[in-house]
Specification:
With 106 residues, this protein is α+β, with helices and mostly antiparallel strands. It has one domain. It contains three helices and four strands; from the N terminus they run αββαββα.
Length: 106
């Protein structure tokens, strides 16, 4: 039997990505998680406004922050994205990559 672990549902892909990042951030213990395309934030999730601001504005230039940033490239369809986590790593990049691809595929 398949169990659906989602607490929130969304039809819109960006909102679904935000919900997914919220859950993944909570599981990993990261202060913030974000998806970036060409160094521009597509969607982000953070514990607080300060972490969100720091991730969105400094993640492309990792040496501007005192926090640990983990920048992980992901191949989604024909393109690439970066998953950036702050203060902790995600448990499985492969599972994040699959989930993001599934959400964006609709």
């Amino acid at each position: 039997m398949v169990v659906d672990r989602r607490q929130k549902r969304a039809v819109a892909p960006l909102l679904a990505l935000e919900y997914f990042l919220d859950a993944e951030r909570a599981r990993s213990g990261a202060s913030a998680l974000g998806l970036f395309v060409s160094d521009e934030a597509l969607v982000a999730s953070a514990k607080d406004a300060a972490a969100h601001r720091e991730l969105v504005h400094n993640a492309p230039i990792a040496d501007l922050t005192d926090r640990d940033l983990y920048v992980l490239p992901m191949r989604i369809g024909a393109g690439t994205m970066k998953l950036v986590s702050m203060d902790a790593r995600v448990a499985s990049l492969a599972s994040v990559e699959r989930a993001v691809a599934r959400i964006l595929a609709g």
